[in-house]
């Protein structure tokens, strides 16, 4: 019985989970400082996408203060957001769509 219940819960979570739209997450958290292809307070996504990996982008979102020091930047770090793993992945994937643009 427990196995059936676990199986039902797992399948229902898969059916009702939706992929996050990276653009919507970006517009919620990042738009104030970043633009897709123009310089704002922070660098544009096309610049980030051409310099950073998926993992580096997520690491920067998780701990911007540590990462800006690791990357050798001189100015203050971006705002630290408490995003879910899915939100970070959605933003990183969205940023990487600008690679080569």
Give a short summary of the structure:
The protein is an all-alpha fold and 101 residues long.
List keywords for this structure.
6 helices; mainly alpha; single chain; Cytochrome Bc1 Complex, Chain D, domain 2; 101 residues; globular
CATH architectural designation: Orthogonal Bundle
Model regions low in confidence, pLDDT < 50 over at least 5 residues: 4-18
Mean pLDDT: 81
Count of helix runs: 6
Write down the CATH class.
Answer: Mainly Alpha
* Number of E-state strands: 0
Please give the share of residues in helix.
Answer: 55-70%
The CATH topology is Cytochrome Bc1 Complex, Chain D, domain 2
| Count of the domains | 1
Rg on CA atoms, Å: 17 Å
What's the SSE blueprint?
Layout: H1 2-16, H2 22-29, H3 45-51, H4 54-62, H5 64-70, H6 85-96
Helix pairs in contact: 2-6, 4-5, 4-6
Care to describe what's here?
About 55% of the residues lie in helices and about 0% in strands. With about 100 residues, it is mainly α. The protein has helices at about 1-15, 20-30, 45-50, 55-60, 65-70, 85-95. α2 (about 20-30) packs across α6 (about 85-95) and α4 (about 55-60) packs across α5. The model is unreliable at about 5-20 (pLDDT under 50). The chain is built from six helices and no strands.
